[in-house]
Amino acid sequence: MKNIPTLGTRLTMGLALSLGALAITTAADGADWRKFIPLGKGVEADPRAEYTLTEKHGPWLILCASFAGENAESEAQALVMELRKRYRLEAYKHRQSYDFSQPVVGRGFSRTGGVKIMKHSQDNKFSEIGVLVGHFQAVDSSDTSQALERIKHLQPDCLNLTGRKSSTQRFSGLRSVYRRISSSEDNRVKGPMGKAFVTRNPLIPKEYFAPKGIDSLVMRMNKGVKYSLLNNNSRYTVRVATFRGTSSFKPADAVKPLRVGNNPTKLEMAAENAHAMTMSLRKRGVQAWEFHDRYESIVTIGSFDSWGNDLPNGSIDINPAMLTIIETYKPVQRQVGSGFQGVQPRTENGIPFDIQPEPIEVPRVSIAADYARN
After folding, report:
1. Which of 17, 25, 80, 326 is such that its CA lies 20 to 30 A from the CA of 287?
2. b/e for 267-297, b at 16 or more Cβ within 10 A?
3. Burial degree of 50 (CB within 10 A; 0-12, 13-18, 19+)
4. What's the alpha-carbon Rg for the chain, to the nearest Å?
């Protein structure tokens, strides 16, 4: 799942998490991830241009600062232009909106066995504009590290608070005070972007950032499985059953993952249960899938390109077909004692489903591997 506060002292939990996970597009959008635009000798700095972040600006970025408020757009643009014109850095803007006012469905069930509804600790809505420097191909390269250290010590005129009543840069005043009173010489000499950090491009699929993808052992464990989840070409599915075993790192354990013999391992038993449930569901016309890894085996149902629709208030309306699967396979409420409702898992040929079915992403081989090979 995709199983996602503000920038600054909360370590940019709003925009940064979005940069890490939320604003992700799919490879099916038609972008060619192998053709990032290379850096040229010069850096364009046209005051009439809008330097908005795209997927072509590299997989890794440095988040320099974020802005929120009435003048956020103009102040972010000023920083982009100064970074480009004065410091010759490829800077871009990226806007992200947040809505923490809506209730969300939590994991598990309420006391009565119903859906658990939860609220965010801070009931608010806001937008932020991040200024990022792009075109970094690796998070740990010397170019990335040198650029990050340089950015932390820059002193852009547009971020200078001297003689200014206010600034829309997140926690700019607090950071200025901290730098002055800090006992660390390094902190005192840092500039207003001293908390800059490396993050990933939110417009590139997160599969890119799994350099190894599914390892060879897991691939072998799923090889030859008729209804393997790896054959599901959609992006999402609903996990309805989980069977956990003892973790294994031995290639020999993947030779016959569904072997039936004397004293099977817990991992083999987990695989057998998942396989048996999948085949039983398929016989009933249910689109079931199975997947096995080093730790567990799972059964999922369905193939979906989207797990919900974005609503105007910022919340997500979950895919109705997914909801139907969740409702169909969630536990049955049972009367336990006087005045108390308990839950009992549903079963398929005696094999239990999960207490909480949930949407998940279909595992994929890393597209970063394809990028490296090309």
Report:
1. 25
2. bbebbbbbbbbbebbeeeebebbbbbbbebb
3. exposed
4. 25
Residues in the chain: 374
pLDDT at res. 42:
77
Distances (CA, A) of 159 to 60, 145, 186, 188, 262: 24, 23, 19, 16, 71
Determine phi and psi for 293, rounding to 5 degrees.
-135, -165
| Nearest to 299, CA basis, from 228, 361, 245 | 228
Low-confidence ranges of the chain (pLDDT < 70): 1-41, 105-116, 163-188, 206-207, 210-213, 245-263, 310-316, 335-341, 365-374
The label of the residue with tokens 């499985």 reads 225
DSSP 255-299: SSTT---SS--HHHHHHHHHHHHHHHHHHTT--EEEEE-SSEEEE
Q: What is the pLDDT of residues 96-139, one digit of tens each?
A: 887 777 777 666 656 655 566 777 777 777 788 999 998 888 88
Q: Which amino acid is at 264?
A: P
Distances (CA, A) of 325 to 49, 119, 239, 300, 362: 48, 25, 9, 10, 16
- Judge contact between 7 and 128, C-beta under 8 A: yes
pTM: 0.48
Question: How far is 14 from 12, CA to CA, in rounded Å?
Answer: 5
Output the CA–CA distances (angstroms, integers) from residue 355 to 246, 299, 330, 342, in the order listed: 21, 13, 6, 12
- pLDDT digit string (tens) for 148-197? 999 999 999 998 877 666 666 655 555 555 555 555 666 667 888 988 99
How wide is the angle at C-alpha 23 spanned by C-alphas 240 and 60, nearest 5°? 115
* H/E segment holding residue 322: helix 320-329
